[in-house]
């Protein structure tokens, strides 16, 4: 006699949770991993980090960014191992040495990308395996103002089409290929434009951090419709800095308010005019810029790339990272 099929336990009938390539961690879960992090910060280093000029809470450094620097240090070691295996396989045929580890840092205007990138640069350079850490921001590849004007893109600054994306990708590809010296144009927030004749020089770093709004954008298809290699294809790791739009807008306005009392006072500043009107009028301009440029860019172009990052840092209203999602698949 055939025995009846036993009914499945109730839990097995429940639909499976949607598969996600990420493991989600609370701040407490993540910071507990710092016990596995060698190289605690010395008093001297704490002082040096303060000297970066950013308002960084040191608990934040210990709880969030120190474990991240350890994770990245592990990734760099593992990637070197893979490189060795590939070189053994290829032999004379195209083996490659001096390939830096490339980290992309993405997120909205004013979410704190530059602060995260500068912090990572300082923390990663402490490891004896990779002391030379270079940081480049993608603003150097914005089209010069004259060109933006000619193409009708002045009010699209920061949108993907406002960059020379080909030159940016070539720049990172050249560094990754181990070229001795690679140069990039330089953008100045002071003059709100590319600085004529100035170049940033990058010489064979161990790690390259590439920070910018659109670094996780997929490559544009070529004219023949074929897929091209894009910037993010050169990344070994990427971080997306995330926060609620209302918080980011507040940080943007606060930064504008602070700059109005400092950098905008410089007679060469593009924004000097906003020091001569009332704070409310100046903030009206900043609110309009947020509403018409930075917010639409965040929603249309930046946020959709979040799911391509290796790590998503989710900040609360006080800039403190509350949750993290790390790719495991
Ligand atoms: N961890 C932090 N703690 C406090 N303030 C921060 C932190 N990170 C960024 N900020 C502030 O938020 C604003 C935006 O940060 P910034 O790094 O300039 O952003 P982005 O490079 O994304 O435009 C700045 O005024 C900065 O001082
Ligand atoms: C220079 C930026 C486009 C950021 O560029 P990124 O470093 O991300 O390539 C941005 O800071 C900016 O100036 N946006 C234009 C609108 C505004 O003035 O806020």
From TrEMBL:
Reported EC number(s) for this entry are: 2.7.1.33
Stretches assigned to the Phosphoribulokinase/uridine kinase domain: 102-255
Q: Which GO terms describe its biological process?
A: coenzyme A biosynthetic process
Binding-site residues for ATP, renumbered to this chain = 107-114
Predominant subcellular localization, coarse grouping: cytoplasm
Q: Where in the cell is it found?
A: Cytoplasm
Question: Which species expresses this protein natively?
Answer: Streptomyces minutiscleroticus
| Keywords on record | ATP-binding, Coenzyme A biosynthesis, Cytoplasm, Kinase, Nucleotide-binding, Transferase
Reaction equations catalysed: (R)-pantothenate + ATP = (R)-4'-phosphopantothenate + ADP + H(+)
The family annotation for this protein states: Belongs to the prokaryotic pantothenate kinase family.
Q: Which GO terms describe its cellular component?
A: cytoplasm
Question: What protein name does the entry list?
Answer: Pantothenate kinase
CDD domains this protein is in? PanK (cd02025)
Q: Which domain of life is it from?
A: Bacteria
| Pathway(s) where this gene product acts | Cofactor biosynthesis; coenzyme A biosynthesis; CoA from (R)-pantothenate: step 1/5
Give one GO molecular function term: pantothenate kinase activity
Matching InterPro entries: P-loop_NTPase, PanK, PRK/URK
Which gene underlies this protein? coaA
């Amino acid at each position: 006699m055939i025995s009846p099929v036993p009914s499945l336990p109730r839990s097995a009938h429940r639909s499976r949770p949607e598969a996600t390539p990420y493991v989600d961690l609370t701040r407490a879960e993540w910071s507990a991993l710092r016990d596995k992090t060698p190289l605690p910060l010395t008093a001297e280093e704490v002082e040096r980090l303060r000297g970066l000029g950013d308002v960084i809470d040191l608990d934040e450094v210990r709880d969030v960014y120190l474990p991240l620097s350890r994770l990245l240090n592990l990734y760099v070691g593992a990637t070197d191992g893979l490189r060795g295996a590939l070189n053994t396989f290829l032999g004379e045929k195209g083996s490659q040495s001096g390939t830096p580890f490339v980290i992309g840092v993405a997120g909205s205007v004013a979410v704190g990308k530059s602060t995260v990138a500068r912090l990572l640069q300082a923390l990663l350079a402490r490891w004896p395996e990779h002391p030379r850490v270079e940081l480049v921001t993608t603003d150097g590849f914005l089209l010069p103002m004259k060109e933006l004007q000619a193409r009708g893109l002045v009010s699209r600054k920061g949108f993907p089409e406002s960059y020379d994306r080909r030159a940016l990708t070539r720049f990172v590809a050249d560094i990754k290929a181990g070229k001795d010296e690679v140069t990039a144009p330089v953008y100045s927030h002071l003059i709100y434009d590319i600085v004529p004749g100035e170049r940033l020089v990058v010489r064979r770093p161990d790690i390259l951090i590439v920070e910018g709004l659109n670094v996780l954008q997929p490559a544009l298809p070529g004219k023949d419709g074929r897929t091209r290699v894009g910037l993010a294809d050169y990344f070994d790791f990427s971080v997306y800095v995330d926060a609620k739009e209302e918080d980011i807008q507040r940080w943007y306005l606060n930064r504008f308010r602070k700059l109005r009392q400092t950098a905008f006072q410089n007679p060469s500043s593009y924004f000097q005019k906003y020091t001569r009107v009332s704070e409310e009028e100046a903030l009206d301009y900043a609110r309009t810029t947020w509403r018409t440029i930075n917010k639409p860019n965040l929603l249309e172009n930046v946020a959709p790339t979040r799911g391509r990052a290796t790590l998503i840092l989710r900040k609360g209203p006080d800039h403190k990272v509350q949750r993290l999602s790390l790719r495991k698949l």
